[in-house]
Amino acid sequence: FIFFFKSDDDKLRRRLNFFISAASISRSTLLNIRLSYVFKDLLNYHNPKFVFITYEGHAWERLLCYIVKKNFKKTKIIGYQHSYIFKRQHAALNSFDSNYDPHYILTSGEISKERILKSSIGGNIIVDVLGSNKFTDINKYKIETNKKFSKRIFVIPEGIESECKILFDFCLNYSISDCDLEFVFKLHPQISLNDFVSKNPTYKTLPKKCNWFKNHLFNCGDWVIYRGSTFVVDLFKMGLQPIYLSDKSDFESIDIFEGEFNHRKIISSSKDLDLLLKKEKSGELTNDKDLSLLRNFSNKIYSPFNRSILNKIFKEVS
């Protein structure tokens, strides 16, 4: 009610106040509040020394921190940032109040650690690299810079329906004009193929050169088209060359491969993909220096798992 009846001459702020008012009684907000009561009951029952949670910026994570710090003074909260912190990420990089922050944040890689330390939350808590089971030393893989193009392209959206549509629609439109390329669509694990198709009947019958990922092997292709998916790092390490699809609706890039890495290609139209294929045929796509820069960056996204970090925290608290 405070935000709903808040007067403001600025039209944008009025709309924002209305949005906040509606969000405060939304289903997701009420679910998060309900979860906080569940957490409190569990903590009362177990009275743990440590609480491990994911740390990605979700509201329920902050509410759990609040419950612990207000009611269980001796319990320490360890937040694990398991995915990747993008440049413009907001919620995970802000300290709204120290009561809503964990005592420790452990990251999956060096880049995420650096970004958290430079943020408002980084000055208040202990931040270190725990590592990830996603880490693979990319230098162990032989990635060819100019191998023959297989004409099979894997398409990997993140787990957001609108992102799936951006990528799939681009490929469907392209397949109409080009009969040589095969596009293989791989949904994020959290999206069911049956549910996605039932909600979006357009994709029920795909053109001949577009298929759903089933029994395909990634080593049977050389390219992968992506947008915000972190899975592209794994495929790059397997030897696939990344193509980032930029869309006109983007405020800015959501590409995990940030910076000027020429080995990673950027397209925004069918003409761009045509040009890319012509360059591939002429053997002028990339060189060893381009590949080396992207290798070095990829090795900093995820670090090897280091259990001594946890042992150190346990000893400090004990």
Architecture overview:
There is one protein chain. The protein has about 325 residues and is α/β, with parallel strands linked by helices. It contains 10 helices and 10 strands. Helix 6 links the parallel strand 6 and strand 7. Helix 2 runs parallel beside helix 3. The chain is globular, with a radius of gyration of 23 Å. The mean pLDDT is about 90.
List the helices and strands and how they pair.
Elements: H1 11-23, H2 27-46, E1 50-54, H3 59-71, E2 76-81, E3 104-107, H4 110-117, E4 126-129, E5 152-156, H5 161-177, E6 182-185, H6 193-199, E7 210-212, E8 223-226, H7 231-238, E9 241-245, E10 265-267, H8 270-282, H9 288-301, H10 308-317
Parallel strand pairs: 1-2, 2-3, 3-4, 5-6, 5-8, 6-7, 8-9, 9-10
Short description:
With 318 residues, this protein is of the alpha/beta class.
Question: Keywords, please?
Answer:
single chain; alpha/beta; 318 residues; 6-stranded parallel β-sheet; 14% strand; 4-stranded parallel β-sheet; globular; 39% helix
